[in-house]
Amino acid sequence: MNRTLTMCSFCGKGPDEVKTLIAGPGVHICDSCVATCANVLTKETGKTFSPAAMVERATWESLQHWYRRHCEEQRASKLGIEIIARGSEGWRVVIDLKGTAMSGVVFEPVTHKHADTGWHICKVENDQFQADGSASTLGRIVEIFSSWVAEREHQIKRAARGDI
Ligand SMILES: [Zn+2]
After folding, report:
1. 14 C-alpha vs ligand 1 centroid, how far in Å?
2. Does residue 13 have a pLDDT over 70?
3. Residue closest to 144 by CA, chosen among 161, 130, 163
4. Ligand 1 center–CA 11 separation, angstroms
5. In angstroms, rounded to a whole number, what is the distance separating the alpha carbons of residues 81 and 144?
6. What confidence tens digit (pLDDT) does each residue in 17-63 have?
7. How far apart are the CA of 60 and the centre of ligand 1, in A?
8. What's the confidence (pLDDT) of residue 132?
9. What is the DSSP string of 70-134?
10. Beta-strand pair 118-125/21-23
């Protein structure tokens, strides 16, 4: 990913400087800024806010935002998002891209294996984002999709402004 195309709207860091960049409507936020928010909230409210849980929550919001906007743009849309638990085989996530702004956009396949966090594989095939992962990787898979969408939306915005 090119860091000049997408960055955190709060601290200005690019994708290669942060663990996760989450897309919201017209803004992005990185995991460390989410952690800062979590600390402020914890201090101010006296309740405990976990940065990891907040990143995960923001990532799901981002997916929902993307889906809802697509449905508003194309009322007859048959866009499907499937999240399937396959027992000991872990998760399978399939997101239709046909008819969306992500159709035909290059996706660099991701293969990750780690002793602690398990494994996940993400790719784009047949105009679908397809991911498989072990039991604890569902949030990470959705994060990967969300970051890819964030990157693309930023590129489109820059192109519309004539920056690239
Ligand atoms: Zn940030």
Report:
1. 8
2. yes
3. 130
4. 4
5. 15
6. 888 888 877 788 898 999 999 999 999 999 999 988 888 888 899 89
7. 18
8. 97
9. HHHH-TT----EEEEE-GGG-EEEEEE-TTSTTTT-----EEEEETTTEEEEEEEETTEEEEEE-
10. unpaired
Question: Across the chain, how many H-helices and E-strands are there?
Answer: 3, 7
Which residue did the predictor score with more confidence, 45 or 162? 45
Enumerate long-range contacts of 16-21, CB under 8 Å, 24 or more apart: 20/55, 20/59, 20/143, 20/147, 21/147, 21/150, 21/151
Q: 154, 163 in Cβ contact below 8 A?
A: no
CA of residue 164 to ligand 1 center, whole Å:
24
| Tens-digit pLDDT profile for residues 134-143 | 988 898 899 8
